[in-house]
Amino acid sequence: MLQGKDLRGYRIFIELVDDELDVLAPLAREETFEPGTRIITEGEPAAYLYLVKSGKALVKMTGASGQDVVLDIAAPRMSMGWSALAERRISTATVDVVEPTEVISFESERLRRLFVENPNIGYGVMRGLVVIVSRRLDRCRSHFAARQ
Prior knowledge:
Layout: H1 18-24, E1 28-33, E2 38-40, E3 48-62, E4 68-74, E5 79-80, E6 94-107, H2 108-117, H3 119-146
Antiparallel strand pairs: 1-6, 2-6, 3-4, 3-5, 3-6
Helix pairs in contact: 2-3
């Protein structure tokens, strides 16, 4: 069983104190995915938030031309599946595993209930999420600006 200290170091939880991580830990489960596994599919319901413990996965979207555009490479200490925390809960990207990958997963419904019961935890996670989304947007903006 995971402990709060196992969640320390993930950017999405950067705003949380140890006691709050201890509350989150029982909601987590560990999973392993093999190369070629699609963990998340763009446009499908987003049911889980994933934290990468080891391995790598490509985060990509379908571009206007219909081709995949790689947005990021999810590596250790990164998160993926943030749409699970959004109001619509529809995946905005596809995630494909490219090497054996261990993750910590959280079911979105359980997280959302916890956030209602413990608003400080929900607020802290959302603050961490804003930083992550902002950084990805900056990287995408830079990438596309360089191609023009």
